[in-house]
Amino acid sequence: MPSHGSFGYAVPRGLEALADADTIVVPGYAPAGRPIPVEVCEALRSAAARGARIVSICYGAFALADAGLLDGLRATTHWDAAEKLAERHPQVTVEPNVLFVDEGAILTSAGAAAGLDLCLHIVRRDLGVSAANEIARGLVTAPYRAGGQAQYLPKASSVVHGETLAATREWAMTRLDQQLTIAGLAAHAQMSPRTFLRRFAEETGSTPLQWILRARVDAARELLENTRLSVDRIADQVGLGTGSNLRLHFRRLLDVSPSEYRATFSGRG
Q1: Which of 149, 207, 216, 259 gives a 20 to 30 Å CA spacing to 67?
Q2: Can you give the residue ranges of the HTH araC/xylS-type domain (predicted)?
Q3: Mean pLDDT score across all residues of the chain
């Protein structure tokens, strides 16, 4: 039984486990880009060919790239190895400044913390918002950080990157049913609107209005999962106004209707 630090872990099966796995997670390993055995590449390719979902955490993206699974796709890894991944695999579009990339059956994340974000994203996709939120509460982590949010790159700044607007985002989350403006958000953060917009983009990878829209859609998802409220009532409660507006954004962001979503996820939370 190998050990890591003060805890141990057992590996009861070998590569044969990949032959029938629905989701395969390749963890990070050091050093970044260390050659992996040919049989590992072959097992990953075989699993991908039969439709398994392949996920990498941190430096694990190099294994996916070596197996040819990232060719023609977008991918990410820890920021300190992104340049190496791009140089070694020019056929891969490496995005060094995001938390994770979802390309359908192939998903990659940045560092270990971003791996949690990606795993919660997968749970949210498979089991719904309520299940992901419950897990996030147990982990004491944010239930939702969009994949496009910037990695926390080292900066010459006395402010902890990613934390300066946390209180304002939490404040907005409790007021999704109200009108939220840039001026109001900036005032809560005690910043000028211009500074607020710049800082918000740095911390979340999106504009405030895009972030609020996604938060409202996620709040609607949870209500669809856990209540029998009408679509119109839910739209009003989450600040989207009308049922038609909610349906529009649901279709655009999730490619399903609210009723289809409810039929799939109702009661799973």
Answers
A1: 149
A2: 166-264
A3: 85
